[in-house]
Amino acid sequence: MLLIDCFTLYVANVMRTGRSSENLNNLHIRKLRDAIRSSSASIIAVSNEVGSGVVPAFRSGRVYRDMLGQLNQEVAAIADNVVLMVAGLPLFVKGQRRRRGQP
User: Fold this and answer.
1) Contact 73, 32 (CB under 8 A)
2) Which of 47, 51, 55, 94 could be bridged to 7 by S-S, CB 3.0 to 4.6 A?
3) Residue 83: strand, helix, or coil
4) β-pairing, 43-46 with 2-5?
5) Over the stretch 36-86, which tens digit does the pLDDT of each residue have?
6) What domains sit in the chain, N to C, each tagged with a CATH number?
7) CA 1, 90, 67, 8 torsion: positive or negative?
8) How far apart are the first and last CA of the chain?
9) With contact defined as beta carbons under 8 Å apart, do 29 and 70 qualify?
10) Contact 55, 13 (CB under 8 A)
11) Contact (Cβ atoms closer than 8 angstroms) between residue 77 and residue 29
């Protein structure tokens, strides 16, 4: 099992290294998505939801929000299960809810 914690930091690091062009950002997203898809390990990925808040005032904030949102969508599309945590409560967005004791 592999835990990725978290996409939020990954996107911030990609942007910090000066790779802010849309094409390069999309390339990073596709590479990460493809690596997850091709892995034989069970993967739990953690990210933050960024589309329900205030629109950032600065361009860099909007680019960050859009890139993280795109990464979240790409990974959710290939995931077996997607769980949104709200106030510590799981909201099952995709897949089946597992009962305690089940693998």
Assistant:
1) no
2) 47
3) strand
4) parallel
5) 999 999 999 999 998 888 899 998 899 899 999 999 999 999 999 999 999
6) 2-94 (3.40.50.300)
7) negative
8) 12
9) yes
10) no
11) no
Q: What is the pLDDT of residue 72?
A: 95
Distance CA 98, CA 4 (A): 20
Tokens at 75, concatenated: 């990974």
What local confidence, expressed as pLDDT, does residue 42 receive?
94
What is the average pLDDT across 9-16? 87
CA distances from 3 to 17, 45, 47, 82 (A): 24, 6, 11, 14
State the pTM of this model: 0.85
Q: Is the pLDDT reported for residue 101 higher than 80? A: no
Contact criterion met (CB below 8 Å) for 96 and 78: no
CA distance 52 to 64: 14
